[in-house]
Each structure stands twice: as C-alpha cells, then as structure tokens.
Design goal:
about 30% helix, seven-stranded mixed sheet, 27 strands, Rossmann fold, Elongation Factor Tu (Ef-tu), domain 3, Jelly Rolls, globular, 18 helices
Length: about 625
C-alpha cells in the first residue's frame, strides 16, 4: 500500500498518512496534541504521556474512547535523548505493528525512503481510527449521542480543503469519521473541549513517588496493619473527582504494576452500574468513558439505590468488607514475591550471602508488587454525607487525601479530625474545563445499556431488526450505518430479545433492600418491571436482572447473555434483592409507542408505574 500524503501539522509535528484509518505522528518538540473520538495509539519510538499514563515503545496499543461530552484526550510527547534513529529498523517495526493491528489483511509495506524525514524525531506514534465496519461492530459506539458525534467529526473532516493530498488547513488531521487529531488551538476552534490538568494535581501525585518503604515496614505487614499508598479522593459534585481518579491511576501505573480502586459512589460509579460498591484491580490505563469500560470487580455488594442516605450504616459495613479484601489481595502479592525471593536465594549462595544488596533490591521489588489503593467517594460532603465520608476515612486510614476544593467547601468537617502526621491532606484546584454536558441520569442510563447489551453483536442485531420491519424480507439486508438511522429502535429490539429465565412466583426468594419479603407480602404489580440484584446462596453478588410479570404465577428475568449460563445453572439456589433502580426508557419503550411529555427518561416501567415529574416543563393549552 502506498503512502497517501505527508504533511506538517506545524513546525514541530509531522503526519504521514498510511491509509484512510492509519497515520504516523512525528514530534520534534514537546507540543501536545489532542484526540477526539475513538482510536488506538502506540508509541513506536520514545515515550509519550496519554492522560497521565506513560506509554513507551515496548507497550501495546492503547484504546482511546472519548465520548462527545468529555474533554479531548491529551497526547504529550516525552522527548527522547536519542539524536539519530535507525530508519531501517524503524521501517520494520512500523510495518510489523501496522500489519498486526490490521490482522495482516492487505499487507502494508513501509519503505524506509518514505521515513527519511523522521530521522531526527524525538517521539513517533502510530494512531489508528476505526473503520465504518469496526464502528458498526462495536455497538456502544453507535448510540444516538455517539452517532451525532461521529457526524460532527465527519463534517469537520469534509470542511478540510485538499490539494494533491496535502491538507491546506494546518494543525488538524482526521482519521475516518471516528477520530480527530489537532493542536489545542484548533480543537477549541472546532467547538470541542479540553481539560487543563492543574499543577496541584501533579504536585500531590509527585509526593507519592517520593515515598519509600524500609525493611521494618515490610516486617510489620500483618492482618491488622497495612502499609502502602492509600488515597481518598473527595470533593463536591462536578469538581472533577472522576477525572482526577483516572489521572491518578494512570500516573500510579508507572510506579506500580496494579492499582486497587474502592468505589464508594453508588450513584455514579466508574466501573460498574449504579447501586453497587466494589473493589476493582486495574492494570491498564483508564482512557475510555465509563460506559465503555465496565469491568468485573474483584468483589462487589449490592446497595440497590443511587444514594446511601436510606441506609448509610449498611454502606459503611460493605466498604469495610471491601477494604479487608484489599488487605487480603495485597498480602497475597507480597507473599508471592517473598516466596519467589526465597526460592532464588536457595538456588544461589551468592545472593544469600550478599545481605545488604539483596535486602535493598528485595524491598524495591516488593514495593513494586504492592497494590496502592485509591478510594472514590461521592459528591455528598455535607450533613449525612459528611458523616459517611468521615466513616470512610476511619475505615481506610489513608496516608493521602486529595480534596478538590471550591469556594463553597474549602473546609470539610469530615477532615477536621485527621492526624496530619499520619495523613497528608492535599487541597487541589478543580480541573479547568467547561461544566458537564451530560446529566447524572444520562450517565446511569448509558451504564445500564452497556451492562445489558455489551455481549450483543451489532451486525446481527441490525439484520434481525430490519427483518422484523419488512415482513416480505425484500429489504431484510444489513444496512450500512443502520445504527445511525434508528438507534433507539435497535436498542429496544436488542434488549427485548435478550435471553430470559422463567421463575414461578411461589418459589421466589426476594429480599427488600432492608428486610425479607415473604411470598404472601409480595405486591406483584410493584415487583414487575423492576431491577433486582441477583445473589447466590452464599449471598455473593452475581449481577442484576429485569423482572417482568407474565401472569399471576410466573415471572421472566431478563439478563445479559454472558450471565445466562451461570444463573441458569444455579437457578434454584439464588435469591433476589428488590431495588430502587430504574431502567432507561430507551431499553423498555419502543420509539414508535406513545410517550409522556411529563415523564422522566428514568422510569420504572410502563403504564401506571412510578412516574417522575419534570418540573422544568410548562403545560401548553
């Protein structure tokens, strides 16, 4: 395949287009670029920083999925000291990487003559946008909001005038309709947002890099005492706690192999659906939107509500169990490293005799094996929220607290009793960006949509959906970009066709959030069309499902496809917890059905079920 064009983005950055989806970025100065949309990035020479994560030439491709309501992702080159690049080796490396990325389809050969201009580059990056087929396969890039985002990037791309393959408008590059690359000035002029990381954020994280452990601390590790970096992030709503957490984790992954995150925000968690508290182990950078990065946590507990105010004591009890799980995981990692070290010294008498050097290398090795902890809290910092925050601090006993401060909450009562000698409180400024363009309700809805439909195949869904629309089958074909033509209809179709498990009402075991509900007390009308937590006989959380009443004797449970075999195999040993969570209307209401203008999009079913008034609308006569 022949290179399409080669042009200067500005004096310090050069772009070589390999195809309509792949480009090479060459940096001669430390000038950051920003990406909007969806792409994959690999550093082929030197190092670069992607939202706090340091990516080197030995790392694999990193996926960046930046939703339209989020700030663009920053790519900042870290200049290499190497003055001259071996072009022959670079050509082979780029050819190998690109063909591996494209699954060796239509083999691409990069001749070294085409790369001569990169000889004195300090950092070289390969970036790949998604093709139309890849966008269609990834259903979560095809929701209505994402479709508008892709259209917007496409319109920006079409506005670029070209002359013999050279883009005349500088400082902007587009890879297909999914990814836009540009300098800070051009991104802003394009109407997109960026976030400027406050220097106070980097100063606070740098303090963690300075901390070291010694032999005495290693020997003190037991079931009741845990060393290591433990960070609690707190602040009011909308100040950037989620952004700070992602940035902190990405920075910590340079020092540690893994990072543990206890998510205490039941309303807007980072890695799970709402209504859960969980602990997750992260070993890859956080470069995607929340609904595109849902993961299976190490341990989670079902709260069943978007706020802890109804049962704060239960929340703190679960958080303590999650912290005990963290201690257990850390001890396992340290024991594994100690066992490995003992095995090595037994096989090498010189290692066993050189006590000083061995001790230092062992401490450093164990320190890298330890798992730091980052705790995410909600934005409720007053009244009961302040008491919950203080309870979290008492359980975790952090040695670092990152408080994102605003004029309204400069002094948090929950932090007044902190011992400054054991815990450093860093007061940070909010990240510089515009207010969020998406509501908390919409974020929760996206997480629920992702949870239920993440195992679905987009092409099969589109094909089956249009078969159902044309009974004669004459137009029952896969329509290109069908997800853009009718995204709401396809989401509803996909959800209603999920696998289901049927239960007899008399044999149901259902708990309320606080107490057990016997079959005689069941209100079947309220039970139908609700989200329930699913637990096994050991009260371990398995997942959530959506209960639908078929008749007076039977209920149907709709669940994600990846949970069907697990739940069906223990069908008689599970019980449900009724929740106060609601499915988004996009899943349970077909777009061609009647809608209610005064009904919120966060509802609990159809017909006369619970409806939330929208006070921002006035009745028109």
């Amino acid at each position: 395949m022949v290179l399409q064009n080669n042009y200067q983005l500005n004096d310090a950055i050069e772009i070589i287009n390999i195809s309509n989806t792949i480009a090479i970025l060459s940096f001669k100065a430390s000038i950051p670029l920003f990406t909007a949309g969806f792409c994959k990035i690999n550093c082929i020479h030197g190092k670069c920083m992607i939202n706090g994560y340091q990516c080197s030439s030995s790392a694999s491709f990193q996926e960046i999925n930046c939703s339209r309501w989020e700030p663009c992702t920053q790519i900042k080159p870290l200049l290499s000291r190497q003055d001259h690049i071996n072009i022959s080796k670079l050509s082979k490396d780029i050819t190998l990487k690109i063909n591996h990325l494209c699954d060796n389809q239509n083999e691409i050969i990069i001749n070294k003559e085409n790369l001569e201009s990169l000889k004195f580059s300090k950092c070289i990056i390969i970036i790949k946008g998604y093709s139309d087929n890849e966008i269609m396969m990834n259903w979560m890039l095809n929701t209505e909001d994402h479709s508008d985002y892709i259209k917007m990037i496409s319109s920006l791309s079409s506005s670029l005038s070209t002359n013999n393959g050279i883009i005349e408008i500088p400082e902007l590059c587009c890879l297909t309709s999914s990814c836009l690359i540009g300098t800070e000035d051009w991104i802003k002029r394009s109407g997109l947002e960026i976030i400027n990381i406050s220097t106070t954020w980097n100063d606070a994280i740098d303090e963690i890099y300075k901390s070291k452990i010694n032999t005495n601390q290693i020997n003190q590790i037991n079931e009741t005492e845990q060393i290591g970096d433990k960070i609690v992030i707190c602040g009011a709503k909308g100040v950037g706690k989620s952004t700070l957490l992602k940035y902190t984790v990405n920075r910590l992954l340079k020092k540690y192999n893994k990072v543990a995150i206890i998510d205490c925000d039941v309303g807007q968690p980072l890695f799970t659906i709402s209504g859960l508290v969980s602990i997750s182990i992260i070993d890859n950078p956080l470069l995607s939107s929340t609904h595109l990065s849902l993961i299976e946590p190490e341990l989670s507990y079902f709260i069943g509500d978007i706020s802890p105010k109804n049962d704060p004591e239960n929340l703190l009890n679960y958080i303590e169990k999650l912290y005990n799980k963290y201690i257990e995981l850390n001890q396992q990692m340290i024991k594994m490293k100690n066992d490995q070290y003992l095995k090595n010294t037994q096989n090498n008498i010189f290692n066993a005799l050189s006590t000083t050097e061995t001790s230092e290398s062992t401490i450093e090795s164990i320190a890298n094996m330890m798992i730091p902890l980052v705790v995410n809290t909600d934005g409720w910092v007053r009244y009961i929220g302040a008491e919950i925050l203080q309870g979290i601090v008492n359980i975790i006993k952090p040695n670092h607290i990152f408080h994102i401060s605003t004029p309204k909450d400069r002094n948090l009562s929950a932090l007044n009793s902190i011992n400054s000698q054991k815990c450093k409180i860093s007061t940070l400024l909010p990240g510089s960006t515009s207010p969020s363009k998406i509501s908390a309700i919409d974020l929760r809805n996206l997480n629920f949509i992702s949870y239920f439909l993440k195992s679905c195949n987009m092409i099969n869904i589109c094909n089956d959906y249009y078969k159902s629309q044309y009974q004669d089958g004459s137009n029952a074909i896969i329509i290109k970009n069908a997800h853009i033509l009718d995204p709401s209809g396809i989401l509803h179709f996909a959800f209603t066709n999920l696998k289901s498990i049927f239960f007899e009402i008399d044999k149901l075991r259902i708990n309320n959030i606080k107490d057990v509900i016997t079959s005689s007390k069941l209100n079947l009308q309220l039970l139908s069309n609700t989200i329930v937590g699913i637990l096994n006989q050991n009260e371990k959380y398995i997942g959530i499902g959506y209960l639908i009443m078929i008749d007076n004797k039977n209920l149907k449970l709709q669940i994600p496809e990846n949970l069907y075999d697990i739940i069906n195999s223990i069908k008689n040993d599970i019980f449900f917890i009724k929740s106060n969570l609601y499915l988004p209307s996009q899943l349970i209401t077909a777009p061609w059905l009647a809608t209610f203008p005064y009904q919120s999009s966060e509802i609990s079913g159809e017909g006369s079920q619970i409806m939330k008034a929208r006070t921002n609308l006035k009745r028109k006569f």
